Amino acid sequence: MKFTASQIAGILEGEVVGDPEIAVYKLAKIEEGEKGALTFLANPKYTPYIYTTKASVTIVNKDFVPEHTLETTLIKVENAYQSFSKLLAYYNEVKNNKVGIESPVFKSDSASFGENLYLGAFAYVGNNVKIGNNVKVYPNVYIGDNVTIGDDVTVFAGAKIYSETIIGKNCIIHSGVVLGADGFGFAPDENGEYQRVPQIGNVVLEDDIDIGAGTTIDRATLGSTILRKGVKLDNQIMIAHNVEIGEHTVIAAQTGVAGSTKIGKHCMIGGQVGIVGHITIGDRVRIQAQSGIGRNVKDDEVLQGSPAISYSDFNKSYVHFKNLPKVINRLEKIEKQIDGK
């Protein structure tokens, strides 16, 4: 699929400097650009590459003024990074614009579907499932009974959506995601043997949520495990039963959140963070990677370490920790001097 510089400028509301009819059909990093490629320049440290790139078209900020001759055609925009991101989204939409039902699939007679459905081969759609408009379900996806999926949702290959799960509009569920598996609920009996506690709740995803590959979100014991609007989860994250995550919170890979914990709005949680169950984390909290959270956290706290302490205290403590061998040597010298007396 080819686009001319003038077509791209029209999408981005930009200005062409160079050949408006030059065509591109692929995307590339500026240092690897070649003929037929579209690239962008946003970070000033990559500026030298614009004079050597072979890319046919380069998106730049409006205030960019070349100091040397260019081979590439420019498209000048207000913000090159945002414009390139917009173009990537547009390209992705065109590339993934599949419609129709492949064969073989299983879909229950009681399931209902909106317009422009894509249902990939070997997908399973259970009883009383409700799927909205412009939904794309890729091959080998399992959708259990009584699931509801809103408009403009994409479910990539191999995802498993257990019964009663509710997914809002404009969500992306990546490959290997499991929504609605049983929460980790077991109770010891009088013999010390663990008996399963039935998990009869569900998972609810509100609108505009992204779930990364291999992430698992357990159904609630009772009620719902809830992700509020705009939550973004990275790959390989574990969200336990009855957890609630507030609007526009983002969580990086390999983080685990134990049962019944409530996380606030606009939080930023780094990779490999462990969060215990039954605590409350406030709004706009930032947690550094590999931290362990074992207590309630107030709004706007910034934490690091395991167990986590305030970010500034952690950095101060780390200075002393690095110098610990020197401190021990000094103490040993002092002890020898005292013993010598």
State the strand order across the main sheet.
Answer: 8-11-14-17-20-25-28-31-34-37-39-40
- Number of H- or I-type helical stretches: 4
CATH topology of the largest domain: UDP N-Acetylglucosamine Acyltransferase, domain 1
Helical fraction equals 10-25%
* Low-confidence runs: none
Any idea what the radius of gyration is? 26 Å
Instruction: Name the CATH homologous superfamily of the largest domain.
Output: Hexapeptide repeat proteins
CATH class categorisation of the largest domain: Mainly Beta
What can you see in these coordinates?
The protein has 341 residues and is α/β, with parallel strands linked by helices. It has 2 domains: 3-95, Udp-n-acetylmuramoylalanyl-d-glutamate--2,6- Diaminopimelate Ligase, Chain: A, domain 1 (3-Layer(aba) Sandwich); 100-314, UDP N-Acetylglucosamine Acyltransferase, domain 1, CATH 2.160.10.10. Helices cover 16% and strands 30% of the residues. The chain has 4 helices and 40 strands. The strands form 6 sheets. A 12-stranded mixed beta sheet has the order 8-11-14-17-20-25-28-31-34-37-39-40. A 10-stranded parallel beta sheet has the order 9-12-15-18-21-26-29-32-35-38, with no helix packed on it. The longest helix is centred in the C-terminal third of the chain and has 17 residues, at 324-340. The protein is flat. The chain starts with a strand and ends with a helix.
Task: Explain briefly what this protein structure is.
The strands form 6 sheets. A 12-stranded mixed β-sheet has the order 8-11-14-17-20-25-28-31-34-37-39-40. A 10-stranded parallel β-sheet has the order 9-12-15-18-21-26-29-32-35-38, with no helix packed on it.
